[in-house]
Task: inverse folding
């Protein structure tokens, strides 16, 4: 007999209730706001194919995200459960701060970031200002903080290569971008 599909029930996300051993779940409905799992393949019997599962959910900031590579439905459900717990346990004030920061443009953010770096020597401030003005802001000024991805950063580096910017300047610009986005990454899971 083929095993039934295990579903997300109260026992999966509630720490207090545990499923009985040997319990079989036949319901397949997830809790509202939890997200969804699916396969991206076009196989006729998706339950029996070897392609990985993907999940789609909204993070604490309200941004839709998608992850893939889960070998089983249970693994996908476990990740959805983990995301749901994190989202539910995030304080409202922190979630609002993440949303506000995520909507901010990088140029605006960088303008407030540099004055807060009181530990920088005057020469460092001049160098960072020069890098921001000549390399970083022309390419990334209008980008929202929550839209930074590894691909966006890679595109930025490739644009410097196309403009034949020297390797040392590329490294310094990358380091400056990384340092300036460190706070945004820590407070909102946005940057790479």
Result:
């Amino acid at each position: 007999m083929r095993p039934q599909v295990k579903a997300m029930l109260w026992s999966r996300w509630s720490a207090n209730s545990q499923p009985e051993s040997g319990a079989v779940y036949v319901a397949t409905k997830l809790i509202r706001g939890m997200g969804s799992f699916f396969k991206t393949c076009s196989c006729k019997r998706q339950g029996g194919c070897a392609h990985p599962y993907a999940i789609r959910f909204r993070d604490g900031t309200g941004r839709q995200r998608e992850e893939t590579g889960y070998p089983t439905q249970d693994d996908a459900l476990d990740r959805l459960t983990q995301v749901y717990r994190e989202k539910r346990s995030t304080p409202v004030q922190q979630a609002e701060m993440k949303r506000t920061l995520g909507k901010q443009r990088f140029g605006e953010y960088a303008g407030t970031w540099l004055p807060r770096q009181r530990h920088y020597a005057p020469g460092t401030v001049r160098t960072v200002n020069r890098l921001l003005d000549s390399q970083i802001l022309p390419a990334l000024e209008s980008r929202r903080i929550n839209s930074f991805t590894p691909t966006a950063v890679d595109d930025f580096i490739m644009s410097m290569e196309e403009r034949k910017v020297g390797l040392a300047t590329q490294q310094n610009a990358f380091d400056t971008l990384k340092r300036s986005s460190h706070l945004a990454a820590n407070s909102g899971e946005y940057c790479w």
